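## Example pair
The file below holds two records. Each record gives the amino-acid sequence first, followed by its structure token line.
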Amino acid sequence: MRINLDKLQALRAGHERMRADYASRAELVRFGANQVESLRAELVRVSKSDEAIRLLKSNPIELAAYPAEALKLSNVDVHTLRKLIAAQSSLVKARQDADAQAAIVAESAALMERLNTYALRFPEAA
């Protein structure tokens, strides 16, 4: 019995591409989280009112439901708030994508571990 080395190498390369894709998605999550925190800090710094700070600690999506006038009275910059809401939405999507890719990579890693263990039976695969 022989092992198809070309197929094994193709599977290994595919697994490495999946890992690299996951790493880039995880980096997008880190970037998005930093952006959200930066925008939130900017809003808190500019607003300086206790009411605004309390509002800004809540979910940005919930903040969108507040009337614009109420936000202005609390010194919340509506434009920056919109950027925060967009960044938060992007972060949620990025986390979902990264989580989905992590599951795929985990399955692929388990398969590659089994394939590599099997391939050790064949000297030409080492």
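Second record, same layout:
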Amino acid sequence: MTRRLVLFVLAGLALATSAEAASLFSTGSSWRWRPGTNEASTPVSAWRQSTFDDTQFTTAPAPFWYGDPYPGGTEITGMQNVYLCLFLRKTFVISNTAEIAGLRLGAIVDDGFVAWINGTEVKRVSMLEPAGAPVSITTLADNAVEPVAFLTYSDLPPPASYLVPGTNVLADRGEKADDAGRRQSPVRAGRQSSLS
């Protein structure tokens, strides 16, 4: 069996006035992405901002995968033994940030990821370095223990510190572990994914 690195992005937006979450983007939606053959921007953090010009990124539907065949989404070719990460961006609009009580980010990941909203790191999973540490195209994830499960993370920072009225961006960097050429992919984002 081949390994693959998988990332499903599912974030929940909890409204202060409602017990139910509102969906910001649907499953299988299109993302902007590029392979981690070199840094996505100079400086390396610029691609995480909503103002970044991502015209050099490709638009494609989630999930992103390679290795074991997966129905739908975008198969990544040329990654094995060439690069260690994928850069993904998904924009979403918030009309009234005062209504947002919290966010939840859910993921199934093999091996790791770092997620930012408008440049603020909001979640780091299975990475060798601690939260806030710099990441580069040579950064490795911790090797995931299989089978990996879908988890929901509700411990994101308070959204008032990073959400803005209007267009926001979820920037995600899927990372793989260096495990001697075993076939895997860093990201499968969105098959059952939505931002809500």
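Notes on the second record: Confidence is low (pLDDT under 50) at residues 1-19, 181-196. The two ends are 34 Å apart (CA to CA).
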